[in-house]
Design goal:
The chain has 865 residues and is of the alpha/beta class. Among the domains are: 34 residues; 206 residues, Rossmann fold; 180 residues, Dimethylsulfoxide Reductase, domain 2 (3-Layer(aba) Sandwich). Helices cover 26% and strands 17% of the residues. The chain contains 25 helices and 29 strands. Strands 5-4-16-15-14-6-7 form a 7-stranded mixed sheet, with helices on both faces. A hairpin with a 2-residue loop joins strand 22 and strand 23. It is globular.
């Protein structure tokens, strides 16, 4: 027997002792591997941070990933990134859960007898090579999402190498109208930077600039910055008051489809006051002449135009998706004309540091691709980062994929509606497992690096393309090495490590001056959007803050975080104005059937005042196929077995804006009928009225400075002087506290998502939320004041106040909750016997109680999150 040295002896003794100790326990014994050869930068128990790039949406924000022993556990914004400045949105905070999804593909799959079954990688690659080799020249197509880095170039080079340069870069939100309008007006089909931080007056036309529009994180950071510095009066023009509209100071709700006339009326008012040369032809769109068609008072339009004309840095935001109709390009052009006459071009509308969206396909392109598939012009279709079966049900993509002479390959890491119909699945790594880069804004280049070893038998799509090209004998025109080698060479070996440490290189392109490329004048296109169908309501389909275009619907936490406006969870809703609902005899929770000429869906009704009468609004993003129909039953099983909500995209007729080739989102009239059934909704806030109790208080700056006699209607009652440090022990050098700037809070829910991830908060499912058992440690209360004829929305974050004389402490019979010497209200979970007296006695209702051991139903690798 060979001799043992001292180190080996201690290893054996330590592991043996651990095994003996575990032998008497009920838990199964697992193999223990000592961490003796860890990387130099890793110290067990100490977190390591890596800068990377979020890929939860096309914006590709800079992030900083916290890891422990090679396992990412928390995501924050990269503070070195000049765009996000250390911030991160609600989706980015939750993006880590995509990597730990237990329902991901475990490895390659192939379709046999109508079912996807596992196969080895070698078999999958061999099959793909055979299909590509047998394909006729020019009949291979690549359909993917937006890529702006090294992978984008590699895909093009791969397609060129195999002699089939057919590629469709598809995003549901492709900004076709904005690109077309800028090309018409300024001769360049670019998407400029909209500087919300510089603007002193902001006018948005249904633009969800905080939720999903362009770069919502940058928009929110800049908008809040402008507000803190005393700028940023905002007016929202549109049928629904979403999260962005809720942060506005003025809401105008014209007749749906006539918003283009409001934009032109504002342009006329500004041009008239500034004596701009376009005031002549704009006179036919004066406020007085469009008032009747828009349903707005001329005085309100003129008042807003007056404010814009007097502003030093005004900004009009082009229309959001929910208002893009058959006149989308003309409507967007009208908004840019308003920016032109107000002097915003070059000041708050800045060309140069553009969003790199010019290569995106238009909706008509994806429609043409489906036609080519049906016509036999496509023999092999490669899919990466796109789910057209769900996103564009109007064009019959599922039927096109069913053609017998078409072979479809998906690189998706998890199943979706399109991948479920594929012939071969070669799953890609998730972003936290792979290398990559992105340049979403010209000059802002971000690197993406793996923060965990691949948890499944997956391969990077870049490596797969390189391997396949070489097997086909086409690798001569492609670089040597793997995808990481290509990435390093692209960035330059000398500067790669420095850029990787910082997260990229951040040198936004310089601003460029633009001028009108044609003479402006009236056109027939400046007409209201055409609405088809025989319904009596206008359908408004709007993007979701939590789910974007539906791609984030797999993340259960985002399904459970309450909607920022409705405070609803786990369901789609038909939103109606209370007057509209009353006229139809519909109440909250009634299951209604919403029908258009394209189809019908059933979902619960939710009447509320944050939209105008005569419309029915439904969020985009839900109605997917079940995440995992075979998941074993557990307290939260339904969140994976069931179809959650309904897909509003099935109601859109598929009309196009002829000028831009984009989908006409605002194009359908709808019928809403009660089915006679009812559902108890999983909502976290029942009433948005403060009932005079002053939960969310506000005051004017004059009152705050003492220029008014009082504020809030009554003097403050102070019974004794209070020192915030009194609740800490006298000998303690610390007294903890946290301040929240309520003026800066937009109600975006990012703090809820971050808190859930940081503290491993359980996602409990719709049934438990319906019982009031949600586990979020933070909630954002939303209160609406309409006493003055206009909605005024206040967001009030509510969390544990760590009261000095906490009512929850003195009622606990086991002292499970107590006050520590540093003034914090803390908890000893093992002492708790479940009386819930603390919850009953909490005046802020922020105490939470675990009714089930939710962690016991979590499967690997979700238990690592």
């Amino acid at each position: 027997m060979p001799e043992l040295d001292r180190r080996d002896f201690l290893k054996v003794v330590g592991l043996t002792a651990g095994a003996v100790a575990a032998a008497g326990c009920q838990e199964p014994v697992e193999k223990v591997i000592p961490y003796l050869n860890q990387p130099e930068e890793v110290i067990p128990g100490i977190a390591t941070y890596y800068n990377s790039t979020c890929r939860e949406c096309p914006v590709a924000c800079g992030i900083r990933v916290k890891t422990r022993e090679g396992r990412p556990i928390k995501v924050e914004g990269n503070p070195d990134d000049p765009v996000s400045r250390g911030s991160l949105c609600v989706r980015g905070q939750a993006s880590l859960y995509r990597t730990y999804d237990a329902s991901r593909f475990k490895g390659p799959m192939v379709r046999r007898d109508g079912q996807l079954v596992p196969i080895p990688w070698e078999e999958g690659l061999k099959l793909l090579v055979e299909k590509l080799a047998a394909s006729a020249q020019g009949k291979v197509f690549f359909l993917g999402g937006l890529e702006t880095g090294t992978l984008d170039e590699l895909v093009d080079r791969f397609l060129d190498a195999i002699g089939s340069p057919h590629r469709v870069r598809f995003e549901l939100f492709a900004y076709e109208a904005l690109r077309t309008a800028n090309e018409r007006l300024f001769g360049r089909a670019d998407v400029p930077h909209f500087a919300l931080d510089r603007a002193d007056v902001v006018v948005s036309f249904g633009t969800d600039f905080i939720e999903t529009w362009l770069n919502p994180l940058q928009n929110q950071v800049n908008f809040s910055r402008g507000r803190r510095e005393g700028r940023g009066f905002a007016a929202h023009i549109g049928p629904r008051l979403g999260l962005s509209g809720s942060n506005a100071d003025l809401w105008l709700a014209p007749n749906p489809g006539t918003e283009v006339l409001v934009a032109l009326a504002l342009a006329h008012g500004v041009a008239k006051q500034r004596r701009n040369g376009n005031r002549g032809w704009l006179a036919q769109y004066s406020a007085a002449k469009v008032a009747e068609r828009t349903g707005l008072e001329a005085a309100k339009i003129d008042a807003l135009a007056d404010r814009i004309s007097k502003a030093h840095a005004p900004l009009a935001l082009p229309p959001g998706n929910e208002l893009l109709g058959t006149n989308a390009a003309a409507f967007t052009e009208a908004v840019q004309i308003l920016n032109h006459v107000s002097g915003a071009i070059g000041k708050t509308v800045v060309f140069g540091p553009d969003h790199k969206l010019s290569k995106l396909a238009r909706f008509r392109d994806i429609k043409e691709l489906a036609g080519k598939m049906r016509g036999g012009e496509v023999s092999v279709l490669l899919l990466h980062g796109a789910n057209p079966v769900y996103s564009v049900p109007q064009i019959g993509f599922a039927d096109a994929m069913g053609k017998s002479d078409l072979f479809t390959v998906s690189f998706s890491s998890a199943n979706d509606e399109t991948t479920a119909l594929a012939d071969l699945v070669l799953p890609d790594h998730t972003p936290y497992e792979s290398w990559g880069d992105a340049e979403p804004i010209r000059g802002v280049r971000r690197l993406q690096q793996p923060t965990v070893r691949p948890l499944m038998d997956t391969r990077a799509v870049g490596d797969v393309l390189l391997d396949v090209a070489r097997r086909l004998g086409k690798g001569g025109s492609l670089p040597d090495g793997d995808f990481r080698d290509l990435l390093v060479s692209k960035w330059g070996a000398a500067g790669f490590d420095a850029a990787l440490a910082r997260g990229g290189t951040f040198k936004p392109a310089s601003s460029q001056s633009v001028a009108l490329s044609k003479k402006l004048g009236p056109r027939d296109e400046f007409a209201p959007a055409e609405l088809g169908g025989d319904g009596d309501l206008v359908l408004v389909a709007y993007p979701s803050l939590h789910l974007y275009d539906g791609r984030s619907a797999r993340i259960a936490m985002l399904q459970e975080i309450p909607d920022p406006v409705l405070k609803t969870t786990w369901e789609s809703f038909a939103e109606l104005h209370p007057d509209t609902a009353k006229a139809k005899g519909i109440r909250q929770g009634d299951i209604v059937r919403v029908s258009t000429e394209a189809g019908s869906i059933e979902l619960p009704a939710f009447p509320h005042k944050a939209l105008r009468p005569g419309v029915v609004a439904i969020a985009i993003g839900r109605g997917h196929q079940p995440v995992d129909p075979e998941v074993p039953e557990s307290p939260d099983w339904h969140k994976r077995r069931d179809r959650i909500g309904a897909n509003v995209l099935e109601l859109l007729p598929g009309r196009l804006d002829a000028s831009s080739g984009g989908l006409a989102w605002l194009s359908a009239k709808a019928k809403v009928e009660s089915t006679g059934r009812k559902k108890l909704l999983a909502v976290t806030q029942q009433d948005f009225d403060q009932q005079g109790r002053g939960f969310a208080q506000s005051t004017t700056m004059a009152a705050l400075l003492g220029l008014e006699e009082d504020h809030g209607g009554a003097p403050h009652l102070e019974t004794k002087e209070y020192d915030a440090a009194d609740d800490a022990a006298p000998e303690s050098p610390y007294r903890w506290g946290m301040s929240i700037d309520l003026d800066a809070c937009s109600g975006c829910n990012a703090c809820i998502s971050a808190c859930n991830q940081e503290n491993n908060i359980a996602t409990i499912g719709e049934d438990q939320v319906r019982m009031g058992r949600e586990m979020h440690w933070i909630r954002i209360e939303r209160y609406v004041d309409d006493d003055h004829g206009a909605l005024y929305v206040q967001h009030s974050p509510m969390l544990c106040q760590h009261c000095g004389a906490a009512p929850c402490e003195n009622v606990c019979p086991t002292l499970a909750t107590y006050h520590n010497e540093e003034g914090l209200n803390v908890m000893v979970p093992n002492r708790c016997i479940g009386t819930r007296y603390c919850s009953n006695n909490c005046p802020y209702k922020v105490r939470r109680f675990n009714h089930f051991a939710y962690d016991q139903s979590v499967r690997e690798p979700e238990n690592l999150a």
